[in-house]
Amino acid sequence: MNKVILMGRLTRDPDIRYSAGDSSLAVARYTLAVDRRFKRDGEATADFIGCVAFGRSAEFAEKYLRQGMRIVITGRIQTGSYTNRDGVKVYTTDVVVEDQEFAESKSVSDSHAASYHQNYSSPAPATAPAPSAVSADGFMNIPDGIDEELPFN
Known about the structure:
By secondary structure, this protein is an alpha+beta fold. It has one domain: CATH 2.40.50.140. Helices cover about 15% and strands about 45% of the residues. It contains 2 helices and 6 strands, in the order E-E-E-E-H-E-E-H. It has a 5-stranded mixed barrel. Strand 5 and strand 6 (about 90-100) form a beta hairpin. The longest helix has 15 residues, at about 105-120. The chain is globular and about 45 Å long. Mean pLDDT is about 80; it is low at about 120-130.
């Protein structure tokens, strides 16, 4: 059985590309920083794991996932190889995402993302919900009748 469950923070916004052809397929690539349970020399350590999502999962990542967010994914490990421009064979290991979900509330995620952006001097995400669209618990209010448009029905 090849099954992976990971919880970590996105190290950057997902990179989204679309395949060529009549029926283009969305492909999202992102890296999760997954904390290790033990500390090395008193400092926390993390593994940086490459993930790839296809189709609706990739479109979900493009629309909702941002640098610094904590998410949980399930998927499978996939290995591969290719020859780079220098003629050197490169081996790859990625997690192919089967399911992805938020692991914390939006307000907590936003505060972590803000500190992440300050520490690494990256610009904040350009789109943020209007304050009136967010309830007291930090989740966005979804209007009635929008169920057909949500990617996770």
